[in-house]
Amino acid sequence: MTEPHPPALIALDWGTTSLRAYLLDDAGSIAARAEKPLGILQVPDGDFDRAFAATVAPFLAQKPGLTAIGCGMIGSRQGWLEAPYAACPAGLDELSRAMASLTASDGTAFHIVPGMSVVDADGVPDVMRGEETQILGQFGPGESGVAVLPGTHSKWALVENGRIARFATFMTGEAFAAMRGHTILGRLMREGAAPDAAGFARGLDHAARPQPGRGGLLHRLFSARTLGLFDQIAGDALPSYLSGLMIGAEVEEAIQYLGAAPSTVTVIGAPALAELYATALARRSIVARPGAPDVAVRGLMRIARAAGLL
Q: Which of 30, 152, 182, 186 has the highest CB neighbour count under 10 A?
């Protein structure tokens, strides 16, 4: 009978809205987990030390003295301790060397993975925090490919030989929420409308039409109002239409950023959103490869190993 692996590391994915904590054994398997609505903006009085101690206490009860490693917005300027961005290209070695570290009041050593930065062709900086750990959890050493991490600020990343070569941010999720909730586009949309596949597909089609003489996204966004005004799309379908229009535009811009349409893109995200992106990618004959579960945990374990924490 195989002996169970002992607890070896505490891993935290600590973002803006939630805190996910994991107790990992020395093989990287999850022995226990906890999730709390304690993102950096929800921690009472900004007392990160107290939130940390309460979250990891059950893990430390199993094995006192464990080291902790975390990623995400906890390392931002608004978090517990700022971990300055590591510049692209970068991989496990660069991230492990650039971690910020502190000792919590309970005596636990907590190491924070830095975010990553890149400067685009226009000389403008771009950043991410937390996604780098997910990407390096998905792509192992020596692996290459393209990944998209849909969400509020969608990230597209080019991975070369196990290192993130460059990436770009698209504010698709936040812009969609703002357009739907705070502009005239939302006036004809029905609250609580179920996803509408036909409406989403029509939005994708409109986003993919040739640009010369037809205008870009800023012109096409207004169609989410006029198609409703002229009863060409029902109010229940308008949210999905707007979603398709914006995700389709994101895919087109991402292809331009990459320089060519990739044959495969790994989609790392919640299943419902990943399915929308898979549909959008299929319209461009791009195969969507689903991301593995718990990639942030896998990435944290790999970075911890590279840093010699185990």
A: 186
Tell whether 166 is covered by a domain: no
Strand partners, 70: 12, 112
**Would you state the torsion angle of the CA atoms of residues 60, 55, 75, 105, taken in this order, to the nearest 10 degrees?**
-60
Please check whether residues 21 and 110 belong to one and the same domain.
yes
Which CA distances in Å does 61 have to 53, 54, 102, 168? 12, 11, 21, 42
Which pLDDT belongs to residue 3? Answer: 60
Residue 39 in any domain: the answer is yes
CA-closest candidate to residue 166, choices 69, 254, 271: 254
Single pTM value for the model: 0.95
CATH code where residue 30 lies: 3.30.420.300
Tally of structural domains, the chain: 2
pLDDT bucket at 193, cuts 50 / 70 / 90: confident
DSSP label at residue 191: T
81 pLDDT higher than 90: yes
